Amino acid sequence: MKRKEYSVSLTYEELLLIDGKCSEKSQSIVDQAKTEYGFGLDYICNEILAKSMKTGKLTWRYTEISSCKTCDTKPYGYYKYARSSRYHRKGDCNYNAPFKYSGIEPNGGFISFSGMSGICRKCWYNVYLPKLVKYIIENDLPIEIQKNDIVETKYKKDDVRICFNCGEKMYESEMGRRSTLMGDGTYPSKCPKCGAESLLLGNSHEVTGEFTMRKIAHTTEKGGAE
């Protein structure tokens, strides 16, 4: 008979008590916590850095958030009705219209913050991003940093693909590039070994999830001396 499993929220110190004494599934959570805690920053930055080390990139995109607990100036709440009607009174909360603020999703939105609704743009650019890029550069972490006004990236992620024609592995940096349909850029298309080209509406080279990090020109803060 399968044993019943329980779930519980533990602090980092409590997780250390079961380190090496638990199931493989539980140990993976312990190992993740040890990785995050090892960065020595706040728990939000620690979680972002751990994800960036896994994916090879630090990226962010704009989104809408319901609140920002970092600065407490964008509280969770609802807009109020401007006038009375049959079903509500003027000044009552409209639960179909929550507050919305301009926010940030780090690393494509794959980060989950416990107890946080999101990060507003002001907190991201003034608090978290400067701290993250400073730590990445000073500790020479192999992470490609999205283009920003603080620092240029020190590493470039090079993904591995498998050719649909010859079955050989190749790095995207080795592949020939093709213009997009909109003509606003290019994408890796041609196999360097057999010449087979992937097309947007045809055969495409398989994305493996494997990658290597390539070091590029020495990084300096923008506006500063090398």
Q: Please provide the ordered H/E string of secondary-structure elements.
A: HHHEEEEEEHEEEEEE
Cα separation of the termini: 65 Å
Give me the Rg, rounded: 23 Å
What integer is the average pLDDT? Answer: 89
Tally of strands: 12
- Uncertain runs are none
Could you estimate the helical fraction of the residues in percent?
10-25%
Structural class estimated from helices and strands: alpha+beta
Gross morphology is extended
Structure write-up:
This protein has 226 residues and is an alpha+beta fold. It has a domain at 154-219. Helices cover 22% and strands 25% of the residues. It is built from four helices and twelve strands, in the order αααββββββαββββββ. The protein has helices spanning 12-16, 24-37, 43-55, 121-138; strands at 57-58, 60-65, 78-80, 93-98, 101-106, 119-120, 144-145, 155-162, 169-171, 176-179, 186-190, 206-215. The protein has a three-stranded antiparallel β-sheet. The protein has a three-stranded antiparallel β-sheet with strand order 9-8-12, with no helix packed on it. A hairpin with a 6-residue loop joins strand 10 and strand 11. The radius of gyration is 23 Å and the shape is extended.
